[in-house]
Amino acid sequence: MSGKTKGHKVITVESKSHYQKLIEDAGQTHVLIEFYATWCAPCRIIGVRLEELAHEYADKLVILKIDVDDLEELAVEFDVSSMPTFAIVKNKVIVEKFVGSNPDKVESTLVKYCGKPDATAATATASASPAKSGAGSSKAVAEAANGKSKK
Question: Which SUPFAM superfamilies does this chain map to (predicted)?
């Protein structure tokens, strides 16, 4: 796998050729793709958790974001009709696809295909991120995405 693909961040895909190169570079590594739109509130909410997951799964996973308005051709290719839509790709093959900003679903799907995150990275993310301590927890993120909030 190329050093350009492997990392600790979510990669925003800039073009179809950029996407093809990233998928090629990923090789045997699983790729989580989020199809999103800048105007999609649930997409923005789950984006925070995706950044954390990029750190936690740095050695096991590549995370890509594709703006459906900018890269409509890829959205059509993946039959995206709602946002966010997630796809897991391995060896250029879609192995799973699902819709919704449910962080627990994203996490359980990653565990299914990639195993549990690296304990060291997960601990570092938890201690460095206020999201793990309450307001941005998976449950709170899901509630916010569904219009519920704790007060």
Answer: Thioredoxin-like
By residue range, what is the domain housing residue 108? Answer: 11-145
Is 114 noted as a catalytic residue in this protein? no
Q: Which of 43, 53, 87, 145 is catalytic?
A: 43
* Count: domains in the chain: 1
Q: Which pTM value belongs to this model?
A: 0.76
CB-side neighbour CA atoms (13 Å) of 107: 17
For the record, the structure tokens of 35 come out as 């199809």
| pLDDT tens sequence across 53-62 | 999 998 899 9
1 found inside a domain? no
Residue in 26, 32, 33, 40 annotated catalytic: 40
Low-confidence ranges of the chain (pLDDT < 50): 1-5, 125-151
How far is residue 150's CA from residue 134's CA, in Å, rounded to a whole number? 10
